[in-house]
Amino acid sequence: SKQKSKNNFLLFLPKTKIQMKTFYFLIPFFIIGACNTPSKTLVSSEKSTMEQQNNTTSDCPKDGTCEVAVYKNKSLQIVDDGSGNLYPEMVDGQNLVVEYTYLRKGPEGTADGNYFETIQFEVPSGTKNLVKENAGLSDVKMMFGKNGFRNSAYYPVTQGKLSFQKTDKGISFNLKFKIDQTSQVVSHINETAKIE
Which of 18, 30, 72, 92 is deepest in the core (most CB within 10 A)? Predict the structure, then answer.
């Protein structure tokens, strides 16, 4: 019985050099993510406010769930991991950071079967209306991330159009985009979210 459970554990360990490199590369991201994961509750203070809502629009693919989160008094830093790979890091700042996440759960019993895509961008907090297109999307530090099936990568978004509006009650945005470097499930987002 102990031998069988030990063998089951070994099934999840990487078996090739590429899988091992990927495994070791992802360990710091899991540690950072575990340490810096914000809660999914409303946090109110003068410095930081965040609210998440479930996406109920038809733009969310039917095989998954989508959420939008708005982080107040934050900023995105685009970080190079030392091997040429980029990823966004949220830090304290003066802007709004918008994060849209699509999640498709893997089959029950799979170790790494979940798949998700994330779009993150930042907008100056005083901005009421904003339209950015193609290369102009770098002005809002827009990044597309995908993670699943032992793969994790982020890409700058340089093809698409973002329309963003902010009112006293919240934000709304419409984004159509394309990533040439990889496949994607989500290519159009039309969302609203409250800012408390």
Answer: 72
Query: Cα separation of 58 and 189, whole Å?
Result: 9
Q: Per-residue pLDDT tens for 42-79?
A: 332 223 333 344 334 447 888 899 999 999 999 999 99
Tell me the Ramachandran region of residue 170: left when phi exceeds 0, alpha when psi lies from -120 to 50, beta otherwise.
left
Q: What is the pLDDT of residues 67-126, one digit of tens each?
A: 999 999 999 999 998 888 899 999 999 999 999 999 998 877 776 778 999 999 999 989
Max avg pLDDT among 9-18, 22-31, 56-65, 83-92: 83-92
Sign of CA pseudo-dihedral 54, 56, 57, 60: positive
Q: What is the 3-state secondary structure (H, E, C) of 75-116?
A: EEEEEECCCCCEEEEEEEEEEEEEEEEEEECCCCCCCCCCEE
Task: Pull the structure tokens for residue 123.
Answer: 């907008």
Task: In whole angstroms, give the CA distance from residue 101 to residue 43.
Answer: 19
Give the H or E element holding residue 7.
Answer: helix 2-10
Residues 6 or more apart from 185 whose CB is under 8 A from it? 61, 64, 102, 104, 115, 117
User: Dihedrals φ, ψ of 38, to 5°?
Assistant: -75, 150
Return the DSSP state at 8: H
